[in-house]
Amino acid sequence: MSDRLLIIGGNAAGMSCASQARRLRAAGDLEIDVMEAGQWTSYSNCGIPYWVGGQVEEAESLIARSPAAFADLDIKIRLGSRAERIDLDAGTVTVRSTVGNRGGEGGEGASSTLGYDRLMIATGAVPLRPPVEGLDADGVFGVQTIPDGEAIRRALEKQPKRAVVLGGGYIGLEIAEALVTQGLSVTVVLADPLPMASLDEDMGERVCAAMTALGIEMRPCEPVRGIEVESGLARAVVTDEGSYPADLVVLGLGVRPNSDLARDAGLRIGTTRGIEVDDTMRTPTHEQVYAAGDCIQTRNRITGHPMAIALGTHANRQGRVAGTNIGGRPARFDGVIGTAVTKVGNCEIGRTGLSTKEAEQAGYSIETTLVESTVKAGYYPDAGKLAVKLLTEKHTQRMLGGQIVGGPGSAKRIDVLATAIWTQLTAAEFASVDISYAPPFSPVFDAVALAARKAAGR
Amino acid sequence: MSDRLLIIGGNAAGMSCASQARRLRAAGDLEIDVMEAGQWTSYSNCGIPYWVGGQVEEAESLIARSPAAFADLDIKIRLGSRAERIDLDAGTVTVRSTVGNRGGEGGEGASSTLGYDRLMIATGAVPLRPPVEGLDADGVFGVQTIPDGEAIRRALEKQPKRAVVLGGGYIGLEIAEALVTQGLSVTVVLADPLPMASLDEDMGERVCAAMTALGIEMRPCEPVRGIEVESGLARAVVTDEGSYPADLVVLGLGVRPNSDLARDAGLRIGTTRGIEVDDTMRTPTHEQVYAAGDCIQTRNRITGHPMAIALGTHANRQGRVAGTNIGGRPARFDGVIGTAVTKVGNCEIGRTGLSTKEAEQAGYSIETTLVESTVKAGYYPDAGKLAVKLLTEKHTQRMLGGQIVGGPGSAKRIDVLATAIWTQLTAAEFASVDISYAPPFSPVFDAVALAARKAAGR
């Protein structure tokens, strides 16, 4: 008799788990059954700002693999099926149909109960919502799901003039860029003094300047106090400093793990609000129950501290680790170091490892090194500027963090720093690495190498 | 009484040695005296193709630091001074003035003899010349020095129509691109079956296709047999297959270490024709004599085998290592892994570590993994294609080499592979590294990560 793997959530973590488990165990040995509240599987949440911005025309482009493609792998997908309750003792999940409601909201349809031998929880993340009134009004949008993107695109058809974005993290930046691209006047309202709070201040200032140069009105240190609503429609965003008229308001405050279902079932939830799992993606209390992706609590590889981080790559890797273990082979997730990259207009941003604040909070004594250089040889055409900041541990010179802000072609070199930090190189060791040089690609010493050399030379 | 450091060669290796030695020892303690046969110091040889191509307008742009700037550091530069003979027993160098000859050729001026306490040999490289007749004709050019670049630029003023480039390595590719950019019909004649012989064949084929698509006529497997000369002027390049008319002929066959002066002095020359030095850049027989840059034999960090490699970054690093040791602090050069990057038109090329041929010659049993992917998320606009090839050791899965050929934005990720190979990661270890993702920068799994995952999954 075959086992049944039940998966809650048909996006990155859930479906990479499904695919990997199927690769290792045939349909006669393992039945795989996926409940997805929405109408899509395996799509790129991260692509939604670019769909809103018009760089991507069709939602279908964002879909990596359709339900039909999964069906071909003998993976059953139940679209419009919201998991309502997990009974860990009985080994069952109660699921309710959301049919007729493409957004997956509500829960009016029929309910049924499915048994499992193994359960995978991949419920993703939900947008952070400030504790203010008016957020439920029409004209206030998230940027998390395909229905969110559809709703913003419909709103754009009415040719709105002004948008207010709440928050200046990755999503805030990307949606601000998208709305500027669509010709709107954009105001970014943020509680922090600077956008990109995961950067050090001197780097965040560069991002802020770039956003201002794009014509975005920046309103730092102004936490939102409320949304002005007229006839059910959002009209303005109110802070202590003023009221910013808005034809549309977008939530760019980041996300939190969507762990309520797991918590209600009695699974352990960490300090980050993510579901607790070990490196095999198993929950510590129930060895048949796995969780992966944006809904879990993972581990910072540098500090060892718990961390909740929503990113498609981690979700994919973690789902694959779970699927490998379910498939009968040992696999472990090695943690994260917080590598991320984004852009706003021509300003690219990369970061990895610890920021100064994070390093200090973790008790490290650090030194920082800032290098300003060019993306290509200085004499080569269009050699945009970039700044690289390196954080090293004071006594060991071990690299702990890196940040890049610069012109086109600058940010992806964060991966070199990420690899060096991952492998615990010192600045001197990294400064010796034979990395590439040619005038169209960098000065003789790439800014990342130069930063390491400067850090090592103290 | 102060020591005297005599440096032969005022480019990357020589001048980084000078700067670093001065940083550590003041002028009262160390006199620094540089002999440079030409009229320039510290310029970017690698930038010359882009000066020829017109992306760089002025030779002055290629100069990192002028003789006057060095004079401010109490570093004496003797321009137009060719070292003719080193007497290791006497500790002297005989130098002859080349004044009146900007190219530094010949040697008709006055001669003098200078003593040294420490000697640094940084004589660089000279272009490889095929053993055929006609190479000394007018209209045959190297791409090695500023006078070479000036000569080609002067030739371009006469509005030539057809150029033949001999060789398909880095310089061959770059100068072919430059001449296409200048509107010439370009034929590349090469002895090998494919351009970029430091790549595997399947990757070289991609480069060849890109060059053909640029309108370059590729003539592989046709070693040059001679240059047709009329009235002292090159008119065509002759191979076994045909005769290719040329208004100008450019040598792009690569370079060899310019080690003749050192050899004549009795210093040891390696199998690669480079001057033998240890990791401190000292010659093994004369501890007061150092050498660095394109003229030396260095060490491949992976195989431990000797290697001659001409690249500004290594020359700079090696010069700095020599300067640090001369300055009284210990420093070592950690070897190279052959990382390089270039482009021809929109085709970018990166390589690091061992190619299949190199790995097999060194006795490794290897596996190769090829991944075809996109530079950005597949749905993002202008997501050019790229191919990544990974070489891993069969039994250990240790990464030994990487190659990238692809569209704009692809090649610089060779640095991530270089860092992983440098630190001896296995494919599985590298596949776990937290590298960045956002749709404008890569698919969810960057091609380099995907290649590692595929290699690890065998």
Overview in brief:
The first copy, chain A, has 458 residues and is α/β, with parallel strands linked by helices.
Q: Could you tell me the strand content of chain A as a percent range?
A: 25-35%
| Largest two-chain interface | A-B, 66 and 65 residues
Identify the CATH architecture of the largest domain in chain A.
Answer: 3-Layer(bba) Sandwich
Overall geometric form of chain A: globular
Cα-to-Cα separation, first versus last residue of chain A? 66 Å
Number of helices of chain A: 12
The chain-level structural class of chain A is alpha/beta
CATH class categorisation of the largest domain in chain A: Alpha Beta
Topology:
The structure is a homodimer of 458-residue chains.
Chain A: E1 3-8, H1 12-24, E2 30-36, H2 48-52, H3 67-72, E3 75-79, E4 81-87, E5 92-97, E6 111-115, E7 118-121, E8 125-127, E9 140-141, H4 146-157, E10 162-166, H5 170-181, E11 185-189, H6 201-213, E12 217-219, E13 226-230, E14 233-238, E15 243-245, E16 248-251, E17 255-257, H7 260-265, E18 275-276, E19 289-291, E20 296-299, E21 306-307, H8 312-326, E22 340-344, E23 347-353, H9 356-361, E24 366-374, E25 385-393, E26 399-406, H10 414-422, H11 427-432, H12 447-456
Parallel strand pairs in A: 1-2, 1-7, 2-3, 7-19, 9-16, 10-11, 10-16, 11-12, 18-20
Antiparallel strand pairs in A: 4-5, 5-6, 8-17, 13-14, 14-15, 20-21, 22-23, 23-26, 24-25, 25-26
Helix pairs in contact in A: 1-8
